[in-house]
Design goal:
With about 270 residues, this protein is an alpha/beta fold. It is about 30% helix and about 15% strand. InterPro entries: Alpha/beta_knot_MTases, tRNA_m1G_MeTrfase_C_sf, tRNA_m1G_MeTrfase_TrmD, tRNA_m1G_MTases_N, tRNA_MeTrfase_TRMD/TRM10.
């Protein structure tokens, strides 16, 4: 996979040289190219922003440098890339979207600063659906100083899904929100050696060697954690995807299938956690 990132702060992307992504780059599994947007400016101050039309606070990134930068990057490769624009007003970045992006051969990230990129840049490239795709993506309902941090998040989420990046090819299959699971549940707690630490013991079932019981315990813990931290995932789930034991655990946690619709609701005896 090829990844191009256009930014006014190339040093911000240095973390891509370490950990899993750095190792994947060193092994040639991903080709990451970071470009300084200012090299496509033509004034002595390397200006990339200007005041917004219509007034208002902040500055807007100019279309000329972005257009030249993206044209140059697009001309340097072959294929149908996806241009990913991090923005709080974009579609949510989910594990499902990460999986879809991991299937693409070429991603181009366009992280903005200030109040964002002149809208005409997005419209210019979005008007070429036959040769590329433009995705505006948000990593959460909050605002950052720029799009570089979201790029780091998305690149790591996508890169770890690529063949050969993780030491164990099966590692990502049990991730929280992994697509293809019967229900979108958070992962339960994990433990390692020693078996006792500061008076706290590892749950006995994990030491039993009984794979069926371990799998059931992990499932029960995932249900409990999801109920506690992300109840909307249970509320939006079809009760038919849960087995008898799942339903018993959910009932103990204060959930029951609603009689008038295919979803769960809280009971009056909901467990306080």
């Amino acid at each position: 996979m090829r990844l191009d990132i256009v930014t006014i702060f190339p040093d911000y992307l240095e973390p891509l040289n370490v950990s899993l992504v750095g190792k994947a780059r060193a092994r040639g599994l991903i080709d990451v190219r970071v470009h300084d947007l200012r090299q496509w400016t033509h004034d002595r101050h390397h200006t990339v922003d200007d005041t917004p039309y219509g007034g208002g606070p902040g500055m807007v990134m100019k279309p000329d440098p972005w257009g030249e930068a993206l044209d140059s990057v697009l001309d340097s490769g072959q294929g149908e890339p996806v241009i990913v624009v991090p923005t709080p007003s974009g579609r949510p970045f989910t594990q499902e979207l990460a999986v879809r992006l991991a299937e693409k051969p070429w991603l181009i990230f366009a992280p903005a600063r200030y109040e964002g990129i002149d809208r005409r840049v997005i419209e210019e490239y979005d008007a070429r659906p036959d040769v590329l795709e433009v995705l505006e993506v948000s990593i959460g309902d909050y605002v950052l100083a720029g799009g570089e941090a979201p790029v780091l998040v998305m690149v790591e989420a996508v890169a770890r899904l690529l063949p050969g990046v993780l030491g164990n090819a099966e590692s990502h299959r049990d991730d929280s929100f992994a697509p293809g699971a019967m229900a979108q549940l958070l992962e339960g707690p994990v433990y390692t050696k020693p078996p006792e630490w500061r008076g706290r013991a590892v749950p006995e079932v994990l030491l039993s060697g009984h794979h069926g019981k371990v799998a059931r315990w992990r499932r029960d813990e995932a249900l409990a954690r999801t109920s506690r931290h992300r109840p909307e995932l249970i509320e939006g789930a079809d009760p038919e995807i849960f087995d008898k034991q799942d339903r018993a655990v959910l009932a103990a946690l204060g959930w029951e299938a609603e009689p008038d619709g295919p979803r769960f609701g809280r009971t009056s005896a909901a467990v306080e956690e």
